[in-house]
Amino acid sequence: MRDRRLDAGRFGHAVVIGPRSDCFIMDNAGERTMIGAQFKPAAAAAFLGVPACEAAGLILDLTDLHGPGAADLRDELLYASSLPERFLILETWLLARIHSDLTPDAAVAHALAEFRRAPAGLSVGGTIERLNVSPKRFIEQFKREVGMTPKRFCRLMRFQKALRLIRQPENIHWADIAYACGYYDQAHFIKEFHAFSGLTPTEYRLTASMHPCHLPMF
What we know:
Elements: E1 5-7, E2 15-17, E3 25-27, H1 44-48, H2 52-55, E4 59-61, H3 62-66, H4 69-79, H5 83-95, H6 106-117, H7 124-131, H8 135-146, H9 150-166, H10 174-180, H11 186-197, H12 201-207
Parallel strand pairs: 1-3
Antiparallel strand pairs: 2-4
């Protein structure tokens, strides 16, 4: 499914959301309890058993990846007596299915650390040059493990840095945030922000919730 709406009851109650850099609407009308795990970049492949690029932008039913056992997981979580117990059940289930032989490529792992540490001050080309690797092979391997190109990943990290700055309690100046995050100017910042979130920075700030990446729509 490549649309921007996820019906929480459409996929048998257990889904895997592949790597993505766009926004989507989750329809959770009615009384629902949700629990999930968020994987670090390049870590999802070890759980999925397939390259991250094959799940990029997709929402998959967990039973398609792990068979009927996914339904058993749902039942265990449903009847758990407390939230800590649910987290323990989920963690145990995930660890039992990790492909320990699928470790990230060393160059990709190093680049991810750089990109996450300083998303505004690094260029993809400069990182590839420092790693002394083939640009074509590196980009292909990065996309295979992370689910997007290095350039798009850096754009996403820059956007997430902007989210953190916007959520600070003090007065906000969009030009200052644009500069701090490495955007060319305020117009570039607003355009990129809208591309990832579907909102302007002002609209986001007015609706921001406890979690920076989750917003109430109604």
